[in-house]
């Protein structure tokens, strides 16, 4: 919570930094756990959203699995204490070294994204006398209606196996004695706020799971990925997602055979709201056309606005709330014109030294930070 005491604590700290509200994280995780348990659903946390160790530890302790997209994420999951039997590994470009990492750790499943990858995993498993469990990631050609940079389930996207290649996939699986097909996997995109889109995914998943049954494969799992979006505009009104409604959609529309498990890979919905980027105003520049607040944080700390024109709510934590308001372009110190964090943001009259917060920054924030311009990599602070 960004209450008076917390802000007073920030005053004494060097900026910028990410501030994690661990109580809110706990509340979010508990709410997701209760809602998923209600239907016997399994949640794997998408590591790519945030791999801060305290965040990961909380997620591991609640009992979720890990959805990884690199060998290092697999390694990290095991180090943090995630059960290898709950680790899945996706990604269009798994290197041999990364596949071996997964095999040696006996992870639960490789989410395979091409026919060629099936052959490579089979060979690497055979050399080690192992059988790899695999799920085929299928490109369902379902439009997620989100920003086109974070859409993944359309035919023009690089992700997954296209439906017209499934026959070849099945032939490859039949001749691969070191692979065991355990399921099918989908992920149509991120920041999806219209739940009807997940209904369309269910319809497609039902059709494709039926197709595999007809071709003689009994699927143990249906993995429907992640993508559940958060409210960037009203973080205080919606600090915790409505997980109940989300899971209910799948319970209602996804056809499950007896004993078939349903897996989810949530990232953003679990960690976005608990993270905030705290920064200070370095300079106030008043121009003829624009007023700029130049912060000590920029695209190197939070890349989402520069990369996807993403919105993050910006608040001045130091200014008098009743002061007259001014419209500012909030920018960073980096030598790039795309280095902005908010445009035409209405804020109370602001001055050098004021603390500023960028809300809903817990997902795809700190993990995408860089050292461009030889900047320090942004650090973390915690509520407790
Ligand atoms: C395969 C896969 N699973 C899960 C996720 C997590 O997505 P989100 O953070 O939107 O829940 C992603 C990221 O978009 C992904 O690519
Ligand atoms: N990084 C993106 C989400 C990509 C999800 C990974 N497929 C974002 O900030 O919204």
TrEMBL record:
UniProt lineage: Bacteria, Pseudomonadati, Bacteroidota, Sphingobacteriia, Sphingobacteriales
CDD domains in the cross-refs: PLPDE_III_DapDC
Catalyzed chemical reaction(s): meso-2,6-diaminopimelate + H(+) = L-lysine + CO2
Top-tier EC class: lyase
One Gene Ontology term from the biological process aspect of the record: lysine biosynthetic process via diaminopimelate
InterPro entries named in the record: Ala_racemase/Decarboxylase_C, DAP_deCOOHase_LysA, De-COase2_C, De-COase2_CS, De-COase2_N, De-COase2_pyr-phos_BS, Orn/DAP/Arg_de-COase, PLP-binding_barrel
Organism of this sequence: Daejeonella lutea
Record protein name field: Diaminopimelate decarboxylase
Keyword annotations from UniProtKB, A to Z: Amino-acid biosynthesis, Decarboxylase, Lyase, Lysine biosynthesis, Pyridoxal phosphate
Cofactor(s) for this UniProt protein: pyridoxal 5'-phosphate
Family: Belongs to the Orn/Lys/Arg decarboxylase class-II family.
Pathway listed: Amino-acid biosynthesis; L-lysine biosynthesis via DAP pathway; L-lysine from DL-2,6-diaminopimelate: step 1/1
Domain Orn/DAP/Arg decarboxylase 2 N-terminal: 35-272
Highest taxon above the source species: Bacteria
């Amino acid at each position: 919570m960004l209450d008076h005491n917390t802000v007073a604590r920030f005053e004494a700290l060097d900026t910028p930094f990410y501030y994690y509200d661990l109580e809110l994280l706990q509340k979010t995780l508990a709410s997701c756990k209760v809602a998923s348990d209600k239907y016997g659903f399994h949640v794997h946390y998408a590591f790519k959203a945030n791999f801060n160790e305290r965040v990961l530890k909380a997620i591991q302790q609640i009992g979720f699995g890990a959805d990884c997209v690199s060998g290092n994420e697999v390694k990290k999951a095991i180090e943090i204490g995630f059960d290898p039997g709950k680790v899945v590994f996706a990604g269009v470009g798994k290197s041999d070294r990364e596949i071996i990492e997964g095999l040696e750790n006996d992870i639960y499943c490789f989410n395979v994204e091409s026919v060629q990858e099936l052959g490579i995993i089979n060979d690497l498993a055979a050399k080690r006398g192992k059988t790899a469990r695999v799920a085929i990631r299928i490109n369902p050609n379902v439009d997620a209606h989100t920003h086109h940079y974070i859409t993944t389930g359309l035919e023009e996207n690089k992700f997954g196996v296209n439906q017209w290649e499934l026959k070849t996939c099945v032939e490859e699986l039949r001749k691969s004695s070191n692979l065991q097909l355990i399921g099918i996997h989908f992920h149509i995109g991120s920041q999806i706020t219209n739940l009807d889109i997940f209904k369309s995914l269910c319809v497609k998943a039902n059709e494709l799971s039926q197709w595999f049954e007809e071709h003689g494969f009994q699927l143990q799992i249906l993995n429907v990925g992640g993508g559940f979006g958060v409210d960037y505009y009203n973080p205080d009104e919606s600090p915790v997602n409505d997980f109940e409604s989300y899971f209910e959609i799948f319970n209602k529309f996804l056809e499950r055979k007896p004993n078939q498990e349903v897996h989810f890979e949530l990232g953003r919905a679990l960690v976005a709201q608990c993270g905030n980027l705290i920064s200070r105003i370095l300079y106030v520049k008043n121009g003829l056309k624009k007023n700029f607040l130049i912060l000590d944080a920029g695209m190197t700390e939070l890349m989402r606005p520069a990369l996807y024109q993403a919105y993050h709510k910006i608040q001045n934590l130091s200014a008098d709330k009743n002061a007259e308001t001014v419209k500012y372009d909030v920018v960073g110190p980096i030598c790039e014109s795309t280095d902005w964090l908010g445009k035409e943001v209405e804020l109370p009259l602001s001055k050098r030294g004021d603390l500023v917060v960028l809300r809903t920054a817990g997902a795809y924030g700190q993990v995408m930070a860089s050292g461009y311009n030889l900047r320090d990599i942004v650090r973390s602070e915690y509520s407790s």
